[in-house]
Amino acid sequence: MAENDEEPKKSKGFLIKIILFVVGGFVLIGAGLGVGYMLFGAAQPDPSEQIEEIIERKMQEAEAAEQEALDNATAQRVSKDTPEVENFVTIYYEFPGTFTSNLMGSRKMLQVGVGVSTQYDESIMEMVESHQLALRSVVLGVLSEFGEDDVQGIAGREKLATAMRDAMNAKLESLEDFGGVAEVHFTSFVLQ
């Protein structure tokens, strides 16, 4: 009989342990959910509302700064009369491709991209385009007359551009009785 009395006590203790573990688990889960809600779920502001508030504040600041700048600018600005100067429109034309030529007295080669400009009407550029073959020949001839030292630096490039302009105008005058090229521009300039 002693054995039978121990079994109900063991089963009661075992049942109480299970109930405590289940209740304790629920308590822990509830506490975790409560803490999580307090940290992450309680009254989080809507991001779109925050963005709208930031935008409104920035716009108000910008308007205030603009108004301040206007107040300061009107006090300091004095307009000047612009001189009446007759300006002419500059027209550009770029030769397709590049020009490559050996330099005089050197083993090096010069490769340039060339464009021209004028302040006359479109007829000058039409002449340049229609006589492109002859002008390309003129440009290559001028390039071959320059040495390596002649094209060094800005002064050398300007001297080369002036020689090209003069040669092109001379060729156009012989073909069309009028030159009209005002400037020669280098779109690329490679010395190899």
UniProtKB/TrEMBL annotation:
<comment type="function">
    <text>Controls the rotational direction of flagella during chemotaxis.</text>
</comment>
<feature type="transmembrane region" description="Helical">
    <location>
        <begin position="18"/>
        <end position="40"/>
    </location>
</feature>
<protein>
    <recommendedName>
        <fullName>Flagellar protein FliL</fullName>
    </recommendedName>
</protein>
<keyword id="KW-0282">Flagellum</keyword>
<keyword id="KW-0560">Oxidoreductase</keyword>
<dbReference type="GO" id="GO:0071978">
    <property type="term" value="P:bacterial-type flagellum-dependent swarming motility"/>
</dbReference>
<dbReference type="GO" id="GO:0006935">
    <property type="term" value="P:chemotaxis"/>
</dbReference>
<keyword id="KW-0969">Cilium</keyword>
<keyword id="KW-1133">Transmembrane helix</keyword>
<dbReference type="Pfam" id="PF03748">
    <property type="entry name" value="FliL"/>
</dbReference>
<dbReference type="InterPro" id="IPR005503">
    <property type="entry name" value="FliL"/>
</dbReference>
<comment type="similarity">
    <text>Belongs to the FliL family.</text>
</comment>
<keyword id="KW-0472">Membrane</keyword>
<keyword id="KW-0145">Chemotaxis</keyword>
<dbReference type="GO" id="GO:0005886">
    <property type="term" value="C:plasma membrane"/>
</dbReference>
<keyword id="KW-1003">Cell membrane</keyword>
<keyword id="KW-0812">Transmembrane</keyword>
<keyword id="KW-0997">Cell inner membrane</keyword>
<dbReference type="GO" id="GO:0009425">
    <property type="term" value="C:bacterial-type flagellum basal body"/>
</dbReference>
<dbReference type="GO" id="GO:0016491">
    <property type="term" value="F:oxidoreductase activity"/>
</dbReference>
<keyword id="KW-0283">Flagellar rotation</keyword>
<keyword id="KW-0966">Cell projection</keyword>
